[in-house]
Structure prediction request, 193 residues.
Amino acid sequence: MTEWDKMQAHQIYNDFDDDLFRRRVEAKKLFKEFNLTNDDEINRRHEIMIKLFKRVGERVWIEPEFICEFGKNISIGNDVYINFGCTLLDCGQIEIGNNTLIGPHVSAYSANHSLDAAERIAGALIPKPIRIGDRVWIGGGSTILGGVTIGDDSVIGAGSVVTRDIPSGVIAAGNPCRILRKIDSNDKIGYQI
Prediction:
């Protein structure tokens, strides 16, 4: 079993593997090319996203400076907006649902190095998937750690550090991120659709 195969199976793998290094280089070429495009190069951006990501939906807008590790472990739904300076370290799978908004300088880290120093130095890494549901809003400067699921329709407050699962339909914020309350009809602001 290759180190890539171990990663895909969410098993401990060697982060210093030559094949993984090559895959990172390919991803960097693509996201750097993406970051150099202009806003009116919509078709070119979409072509790059198709090459970079595992899956990318329709009407996905990503602002530059976007950074990822492999790209091929990222799935993005339809009608997603990712603001400036997003970093997705996709050792584990990262799934972003439909109609999701990701604020500026949001980071998602789907891997964790071994806590044991000798194992860490040898390259031991543990991939843990991240799942962001449909219609989620992640506030700017937030960090999402590996193994976390954020439920549909939830809002994560700016600057939060999400260390555990967040259910659907809530506002959560803080470090560590915690549920503040459910979202209800009182949260409507009168916008006419």
